[in-house]
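Appendix B, example 12.
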Amino acid sequence: MTERHFISLDETAAALEVSTRHVRRLVNSGSLTQVTRGVLERDSVDRYLMSQRQGRTRSWAEHTAWGAIAILSDGEADWLGPTQTSRVRRTLRDLVDPSELISRVRDRAHVRTFAAHRAAIPRLRAIVLHPNMNALGIVDSGEGRIDGYIAAQELDGVIRTLGLRAESSGDITLRVTEFDFDQVGKLVSTSAVVAALDAATALDPRIRGVGQRALAETLEAYR
């Protein structure tokens, strides 16, 4: 790695507009990757910044975020009460900028990135839930790359069993959620909204643009 792949603790705090203590908490939670004391991987910071776009907009709780996705996907969010459903629908009708939606639902899952031995890829691919990126015209980036959802209670076991290594520039992106995984599975497999949200926070600007345009069209159609 060259020097540009690293960023100091203080620089990270300044970029995220948080305290160094908060940065350390993000490292401990796995949101950021520390290379050595006081030095972090820049890719992990970039990914975190992208996932927190428009971070000053208040995010919804995990179950509410998935409810909003269900509503935008012309489904029912049975786990939300009538009052909360009405409130979410009203907010969605008022959204114009896709980045506001991205921010609202950013807590639907916690993003972790890993590297893995090639032999573990097929087993991992069978475990995680993969959004249908083909629906957005995005071609699968390769057999060695995985980007999908996994239940929070399964994560530690999968890491241990398959020998995953935390690495911000790794080819394995796991979106860890504590929400009802049966509901998550239905939405991930059928909703283009999930695929668009994932694409809209990609580091690749082309993929990011595709996702943001798809979200803009979804919001326009919902209004």
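The mean pLDDT is 88. The longest helix spans residues 205-222.
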